Amino acid sequence: MPYKTPFRSGVVLVIFNRMVLRRIVLLRQKMVATREIREAAALNIPPRPRDELDELAEEFNDLIARHTQDIAEQKLAREALAASERQYQDLYDNAPDMYCSVDAKTGCVIRCNQTLATALGMRKDEIIGMPIIELYHLDSRDKAEDGLRELLETGKFYRDDMQLGRRDGGRIDVSLRVRAVRGEDGEILYSNSVWRDIGKRKRVEATLSESETVLAKAQEIAHIGNWRWSITDNRLISFSEQFAKIYGVSLGDDPAQASILIKQAVHPEDRDRSAAVINKAVHEGNIFFVDFRIFLPNGDIRHVIEVGHVVSGESGLERIGTLQDITERKRAEDEIKSSQARLAGILDIAPEAVITIAGDMSITMFNQAAERIFGYTAEEIMGRPFDMLVPAHFRAGQAAPGDQIGRASCRERV
């Protein structure tokens, strides 16, 4: 029976492999020769053995299979690339920061994300094509111009005090990071800008700054400073301005050096006592209160009271607390005591009995003349009710001694 080729009619395939094309030409020549032989032998041809024609057919079928597989793989690759691009675009558009790219020659926006458009109250297609300078608030355009010049010189530009302008006239406080993208020749093709909204951070910083100002003023008025002390390293970690003023050191001093000065400043007569109080509180984990004296660099002696407790911090165990200068209060107390002592001395030598009573009619002062007249010592009578000095037959039907005293004029003696 006649030999049938493995090719189907109507199928046209293009093969780019030169070696395969040459073998097809040879195959065509053999097919023509075979057809002539078959026609001459009255088409009675016995089955032929496997030859080069069969091998070429297999190679051709393999080529078709590989080509089909390549097409399928390319389709999958294109689909994966498209999915990746969609994912990237979604991340780009919905990033928390604002992005845009600017053409180096025109200075106009060539790309931006949706976050920027939403923040400015505009559409992306409105922003694309705009000069980048026009995105800034009027108060920031000079700094933006300076930034563009710096970008051209160095390829980057950073600022943390910029403001973008909203369509409604508002402004957005932003930090700015810009980097240039260069071509193979080193020329800047475009730049990528990243703005981060720092409005909330600036409001927090302003509130914190205001609080710190108020705290510093309150500490100054009350002569109170605060501090942190590392128990592990036995040195200061940080301290406030008022703390530095009390000890006569500078706020800018190194904490380690300031620690040495502060230890040396404690009055020698108070060191052991104050150290014992603090160590006891550290071991027991309690709040401690201790007053002591300190020597200032100018030779003055100040009275202070320290309040603190133990906490766990970055450097291990720490003491945190306050230090208050009570020198003026101590002086006032000493003056009152001196005044009271002088007054007591005068009253003690007065020839008349002098008795003072509190609002609850208890005796608070009893001079020597009163001791002689009433027969009580001051120690016996102090704190006792005034009525015990009034004879019983005068108490009934009489106004209370306090009422009599209340009605007595400044010239009368009761």
In short:
Helix content is 47%, strand content 22%. The protein has helices at residues 18-40, 52-93, 114-120, 124-127, 141-154, 199-222, 241-247, 255-265, 268-284, 327-348, 368-374, 378-381, 392-395, 401-407, and strands spanning 98-103, 109-112, 156-165, 171-182, 188-197, 224-230, 235-239, 288-295, 301-313, 316-325, 355-357, 363-366.
Please tell me about this protein's structure:
- This protein has 414 residues and is α+β, with helices and mostly antiparallel strands.
- Helix content is 47%, strand content 22%.
- It contains 14 helices and twelve strands.
- The protein has helices at 18-40, 52-93, 114-120, 124-127, 141-154, 199-222, 241-247, 255-265, 268-284, 327-348, 368-374, 378-381, 392-395, 401-407, and strands spanning 98-103, 109-112, 156-165, 171-182, 188-197, 224-230, 235-239, 288-295, 301-313, 316-325, 355-357, 363-366.
- The strands form three sheets. Strands 2-1-5-4-3 form a five-stranded antiparallel beta sheet, with helices on both faces. It has a five-stranded antiparallel beta sheet with strand order 7-6-10-9-8, sandwiched between helices.
- Helix 1 packs antiparallel against helix 2.
- The protein is elongated and about 170 Å long.
